[in-house]
Amino acid sequence: MIEGRPGSGRPALAFPTDWIVPDWPLPDSVRALVTTRAGGVSEGSWGAGARRGLNLGVGTGDRAAAVASNRALLEAYLPGPPRWLSLQHGSAVAQAESVGTTPPAADASTAVAPRVVCAVTVADCLPVLLADRSGSVVAAAHAGWRGLAAGIVQATVIAMRARAVGAIGDIHAFLGPAIGPDAFEVGAEVLAAMRGSLPDAQAAFRPIGHGKFRADLPALARQALAQVGVTCVYGGRWCTVSDPDRFYSFRRDRQTGRHAALIWLEPR
Fold first, then answer.
1. DSSP assignment, residue 38?
2. Cα separation of 246 and 216, whole Å?
3. What distance in Å separates the CA atoms of residue 11 and residue 79, rounded to the nearest whole number?
4. pTM score, whole prediction
5. Per-residue pLDDT for 91 more than 90?
6. Per CATH, which fold does 21-183+233-265 belong to?
């Protein structure tokens, strides 16, 4: 088991071994994780094979009571409730401290206050978790191809720097599970959209004939991060489509659940 760190005023819990915890050189005050299908109460399309699943997405067709129970199970590992967003595939960035019970229309959030949990839900789109090396500001971004084309990654980093108090250290990024480059088939319109914000986007597209391409979301995210000076990038090696036992995938299953990517600060 991966042990939850103390300091939140709650008992340290052992995260399910299936969850992903970033391995990056940041202070202990920076906490982050990405959930998988494991550990919940959802059944059927939202389960985990013969097991029950941790679907955290509202509006997915799952029973509302099951999603509420899953969110309560997740919160037991956290210092407070996740600050959920109403994802739009755009470039709006919220301040997590101001997020209440009604999720704002945004695809990323930042936090500088301790124990405020930034959160995004995903099921093929790329979750990007960010923190500066000094542990003064964190962020979570939802980066599907539309969000990447709209500049969500760059907007999130800019918002982090604007919120930081005093000198900010190098920003580090962690790329969670997403549809992989061998599974993400797209048309020429996606490449055209990416070229609008990423001049080197072509390098992340592999032609497969008939005007179609395989697109590499993590590679595109790395290009976007480099535009705003973020070069310390980790993760990006999990494909949601090719691992149905572990991950939800909308592209693969259509009716499915959502994982969550979360990050917060503990008092130093």
1. T
2. 20
3. 10
4. 0.94
5. yes
6. CNF1/YfiH-like putative cysteine hydrolases (3.60.140)
